Amino acid sequence: MTDRAGRRPGSRCAGLLLAGVSVILGCRAAGTDGITPVPQLLAFLPWLLVPVGLGLLCALLARWWPGLVWAIAVLGVLAWYMDPYGRIHEPGGLPLASLRVLTSNVEFGRGTPALVPQIRRHRPDLVFVEECEYTCQATLERDFADTYPHRQAVAAGGSRGSLVLSRFPLRATAGVPGTMGMPGAVADVRGHAVRVQLAHPMPPLPRQVGLWQRELGRLRAFAAADTRTPTILAGDFNASQDHAAFRRILDAGLTDAARLDGHDRTPSWPSRTASVLGAQIDHVLLSPDFSATDARFLRLTGTDHRALVVHITLHQRR
Fold first, then answer.
1. Alpha carbon distance 177, 184 (integer Å)
2. Cα–Cα distance between 195 and 189 in angstroms, integer?
3. CB 218 within 8 A of CB 179
């Protein structure tokens, strides 16, 4: 059975699937996040293997040989972009200090009860908490008043509140301006100044992609503003390594701690389906002064994000 153009029905199905994926991969290759729905789909780039595989099958069943070649080419490009982005620069200097960092989006504070025992269990030295509204902040500050005597917060309701807890002394900075709170500070880590900055830009919602890009651009500007001071930039970036706006932050001289420990594609959102389908949008980014080991993504009840905890070591610069 063929259509008026002499094509089998399967070839049309294959063409639609491959055309859609080709547009997304074209944006990835061009270094642009495009317009809705491209940035939303880029977050799930590895799972584009499914429509490509279906397109290849349809082309094969329809004996549409140009489509089969097209599908194989798209698979090759997709495989290329599934490799981790950027180079890894392992620090060569002597270790100066070791610390554990945890970041967690508690979804309007609802994940706070599940976060508390994880903090007690993993005993991080720095804790970055996104969507930590008034009740969340009051709970964490009360329960960990002695453990984390130093803190920096944006006190607000809903998704706008954020909190940084620290065992180390903190000197407040202006933070990064955004729709949601992104507090920052300079930590005194055993006599060494370390910039610490919470990240929580707006998500790439339809009609808000420009805002998302601008707020990620501000995080990139923060990273690029001082490349000599050791830096930790952690939080919910609402972006993965397949987004051009996020890669520009990495290009400012930062490396993803999860990648350093071999977890470059481990999903963190949405938590309920992350083991099957998800995107890694929660990150701990580090300047080249740090190495990282023992990265773990923790499932917390009450929130749609998995927390990330990682052990990092500050090294002397050569």
1. 10
2. 10
3. no
Residues in the chain: 318
- pLDDT at position 95 over 80: yes
Residue 180 has pLDDT above 70, yes or no: yes
Token output for 44? 């799930």
User: What is the rounded distance in angstroms from the CA atom of residue 173 to the CA atom of residue 152?
Assistant: 9
Q: How far lies 183's CA from each of 6, 208, 317, in Å?
A: 62, 22, 27
* More confident call, 113 vs 91: 113
The Cα–Cα gap between 252 and 172 comes to 23
| DSSP H or E run through 1 | none
0.85 exceeded by the pTM? yes
The type of residue at 313 is T
Q: Which helix (H) or strand (E) holds 228?
A: none
And the tokens for 252?
A: 């400012």
pLDDT in tens, 260-294: 999 999 999 999 998 889 999 999 999 999 999 99
CB-based contact 246:237 (threshold 8 Å): yes
pLDDT beyond 50 at 220: yes
Q: Is residue 105 a contact partner of residue 131, using CB atoms and an 8 Å limit? A: yes
Residues 6+ apart with CB under 8 A from 299: 271, 274, 306
Cα-to-chain-centroid distance, residue 133: 21
Q: Is 210 left (phi over 0), alpha (psi -120 to 50) or beta?
A: alpha
Which pLDDT value is given to residue 76? 96
